[in-house]
């Protein structure tokens, strides 16, 4: 501030540069010299909000509201009233928040339709979506807000209204349409075209939508973007909200110490700023402590979450189960599910309901919860929801005596959790695999899965799960996996993208990364569908094992047909070569070893892009796919030629 510049002028300039802390101090100093005008009071309130001074923000807004009303300016006054409504909702004082919303409505009654009416529709839509769970009403209000934004040329309201419309669509089950609108609305925020407050709104709600969908990869990307944006602003309150999301995403990714640090910091930052997010922060802390085996710490965190208005379920129910109170866990979930009607919110509770019901020997309740979860996962279509549904289905199938069905479901759950990048859930799916193998009498396979689960739980620090897995392993019987006694016969598949290096050069690294994400998720879904076990994934190829040759052959044909369909519909898909071979191999913790594995790998190298080449024994004559004449091929590194055929899949 220059010597001649007043605190008021310097404060206004600081606010214009988004220097919130400096602007707040200067405007406060100016207010001690002379009463601030309504516009400056509104600026002071915004600076207080960004620096996590919510009480001071409310006080300044109330003064700005009175000043606008006295000046006969209902439009600006209504905007301040709407902001005060949201501030009181953040404090958990919904009655006062609703009262301020009503004051905004009354101010605009009889006034010519204006952009403020659009913001009022937006507020009503948020109240319907987040408060009442009325998705249809929220959708109608968001669309009306968008109409007024277009009519008055307000880019800020247009972006936020589109975003709200997308959120409402997602919550009622129209996921693809909703995400498309959210992407459209987020573009101007990324480009820096929106004000800080609406940029924050868009980032925050985008991450919320992705998290509720259990789309953790997408949520993680947006959380990282929001964190970078926060770091460019001189703000204190909004980062606390970001930390809650980051803690949740880090926990899924297996970075538990880092997640706990973020959650603890959010717990310190948020209680005086936003009770809803503060409650969510304590809930995340409770889940982390529960997984780490700190039951007392988890109890404290869940109680704090509850005091701040956050439903502590399903974490508290799972805590009661870990404490040995099946009935206490059951009561927690019955109450929570009875009060919750939103499908995505119910999807968070249902896996715990399956677990608790089975612990209480209530197979009917477990089956009903698993069926409901499966329906929700089918409607919303994210990998994490599908993985959760498959794990629940595996548990129920095992309880019903269908060990083979349980094994198939657990395999799918494991692959999906691997795709999501969720090591804790993937390790739990391995335990489910082990339980199914044990029921089928496959003791060695069960031990293999349990040893992998134990290693994962040790890395994560999941004390309770580690103890339970070790107990299971002791019952199955420890063994030496590297010994030659663990011999098995499988049908092995190797896949590889033809001319991948040239393709990278042609399309660039970024496009290649996008292509590989699509390729990997597409093939993994087909492997899971046909009961394939992903053994290894290096570069652009997969090594997969199947119990039966028919399943491997069906899967290979499905891969090529899926790629061909995508090529016809979208103009491009990579050319993949596939090799199949049935052989005996030694099963080890890292996968399979032996001559048969090498032969399968070399057979894949014989194939060209779009071709399936199989050892003759994999696809005998008379099978439902046409085969070429058998031919002897020399395989690099092997002494004797192998007879192979090409599979006609078109």
Largest sheet at a glance?
9 strands, mixed
How much strand? 5-15%
* CATH class label of the domain at 487-648: Alpha Beta
Give me the CATH superfamily of the domain at 487-648. Nucleotide cyclase, GGDEF domain
The coarse overall form would be: elongated
Class by alpha and beta content: alpha+beta
Radius of gyration: 29 Å
Number of strands: 9
Mean pLDDT, to the nearest integer, reads 88
CATH architecture of the domain at 487-648: 2-Layer Sandwich
Which spans have pLDDT < 50 for at least 5 consecutive residues?
A: 478-485
Q: What fraction, in percent, of the residue positions are helical?
A: 55-70%
> What would you call the quaternary organization?
single chain
CATH-derived topology of the domain at 487-648: Alpha-Beta Plaits
**Beginning-to-end CA distance, first to last residue:** 75 Å
Number of helices: 29
Write out key terms for the chains shown.
70% helix; alpha+beta; 29 helices; 9-stranded mixed sheet
Structure description:
- By secondary structure, the chain is of the alpha+beta class.
- The chain has a domain at 487-648: 2-Layer Sandwich (Alpha-Beta Plaits), CATH 3.30.70.
- The protein is built from 29 helices and 9 strands.
- A hairpin with a 2-residue loop joins strand 4 and strand 5.
Set out the fold topology.
Blueprint: H1 7-16, H2 20-33, H3 38-50, H4 54-70, H5 74-90, H6 94-108, H7 115-132, H8 135-152, H9 155-171, H10 175-190, H11 196-212, H12 216-231, H13 237-253, H14 256-269, H15 275-291, H16 295-307, H17 315-322, H18 326-339, H19 343-359, H20 363-380, H21 383-399, H22 403-420, H23 423-439, H24 443-460, H25 463-476, E1 487-497, H26 500-507, H27 509-529, E2 533-538, E3 541-546, H28 549-570, E4 576-588, E5 591-593, H29 595-606, E6 612-615, E7 626-627, E8 631-633, E9 642-648
Parallel strand pairs: 4-6
Antiparallel strand pairs: 1-3, 1-4, 2-3, 4-5, 6-9, 7-9, 8-9
Helix pairs in contact: 1-2, 2-3, 3-4, 4-5, 5-6, 5-7, 6-7, 7-8, 7-9, 8-9, 9-10, 9-11, 10-11, 11-12, 11-13, 12-13, 13-14, 13-15, 14-15, 15-16, 15-17, 16-17, 17-18, 18-19, 19-20, 19-21, 20-21, 21-22, 21-23, 22-23, 22-27, 23-24, 24-25, 26-27, 27-28
């Amino acid at each position: 501030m220059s010597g001649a510049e007043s605190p008021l002028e310097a404060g206004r300039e600081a606010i214009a540069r988004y220097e919130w802390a400096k602007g707040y101090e200067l405007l406060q100093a100016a207010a001690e010299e002379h009463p601030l005008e309504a516009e400056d009071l509104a600026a002071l309130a915004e600076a207080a909000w960004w620096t996590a001074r919510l009480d001071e923000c409310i006080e300044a807004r109330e003064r700005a509201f009175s000043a606008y009303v006295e000046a006969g300016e209902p439009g600006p006054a209504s905007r301040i009233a709407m902001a005060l409504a949201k501030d009181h909702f953040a404090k958990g004082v919904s009655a006062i928040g609703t009262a301020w919303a009503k004051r905004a409505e009354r101010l605009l009654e009889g006034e010519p339709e204006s952009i403020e009416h659009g913001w009022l529709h937006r507020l009503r839509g948020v109240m319907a979506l987040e408060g009442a769970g009325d998705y249809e009403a929220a959708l109608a209000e968001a669309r009306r807000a968008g109409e007024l934004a277009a009519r008055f040329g307000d880019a800020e309201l247009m972006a936020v209204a589109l975003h709200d419309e997308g959120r409402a669509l997602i919550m009622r089950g129209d996921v693809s349409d909703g995400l498309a609108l959210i992407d459209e609305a987020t573009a101007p925020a990324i480009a820096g075209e929106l004000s800080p407050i609406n940029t924050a709104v868009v980032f925050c709600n985008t991450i919320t939508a992705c998290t509720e969908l259990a789309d953790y990869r997408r949520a993680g990307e947006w959380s990282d973007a929001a964190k970078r944006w926060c770091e460019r602003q001189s703000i204190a309150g909004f980062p606390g909200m970001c930390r809650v999301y980051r803690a949740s995403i880090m926990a899924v990714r297996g970075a538990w110490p880092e997640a706990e640090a973020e959650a603890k910091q959010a717990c310190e930052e948020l209680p005086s700023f936003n009770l809803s997010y503060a409650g969510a922060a304590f809930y995340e802390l409770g889940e982390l402590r529960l997984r780490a085996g700190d039951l007392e710490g988890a109890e404290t965190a869940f109680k704090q979450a509850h005091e701040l208005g956050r439903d502590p379920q399903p974490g508290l129910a799972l805590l009661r189960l870990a404490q040995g109170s099946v009935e206490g866990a059951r009561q927690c979930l019955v109450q929570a599910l009875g009060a919750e009607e939103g499908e995505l919110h119910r999807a968070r509770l249902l896996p715990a309901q399956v677990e608790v019901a089975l612990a209480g020997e209530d197979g009917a309740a477990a089956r009903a919860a698993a069926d409901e979860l499966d329906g929700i996962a089918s409607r919303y279509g994210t990998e994490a929801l599908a993985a959760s549904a498959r794990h629940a289905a595996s548990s129920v199938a095992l309880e019903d005596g269908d060990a083979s069905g349980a094994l198939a479901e657990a395999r799918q759950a494991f692959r999906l959790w691997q795709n999501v990048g969720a090591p804790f859930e993937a390790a739990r799916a391995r335990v489910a695999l082990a339980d199914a193998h044990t029921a089928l009498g496959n003791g060695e396979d069960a031990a293999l899965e349990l040893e992998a689960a134990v290693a994962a739980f040790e890395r994560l620090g999941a004390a309770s799960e580690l103890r339970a897995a070790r107990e299971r392993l002791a019952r199955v019987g420890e063994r030496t996996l590297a010994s030659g006694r663990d011999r098995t016969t499988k049908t092995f598949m190797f896949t590889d993208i033809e001319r991948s290096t040239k393709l990278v050069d042609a399309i660039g690294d970024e496009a290649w990364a996008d292509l590989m994400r699509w390729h990997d998720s597409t093939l993994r879904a087909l492997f899971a569908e046909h009961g394939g076990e992903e053994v290894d994934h290096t570069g652009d190829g997969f090594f997969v094992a199947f119990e039966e040759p028919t399943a491997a052959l069906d899967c290979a044909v499905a891969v090529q047909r899926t790629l061909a369909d995508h090529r016809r519909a979208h103009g491009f898909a990579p050319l993949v070569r596939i090799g199949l071979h049935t052989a005996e191999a030694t099963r080890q913790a890292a996968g399979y070893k032996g001559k048969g594995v090498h032969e399968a790998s070399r057979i894949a190298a014989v194939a060209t892009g779009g071709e399936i080449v199989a050892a003759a024994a994999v696809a005998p004559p008379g099978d439902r796919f046409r085969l070429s004449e058998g031919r002897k091929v020399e395989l690099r590194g092997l002494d004797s030629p192998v007879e192979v055929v090409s599979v006609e899949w078109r």
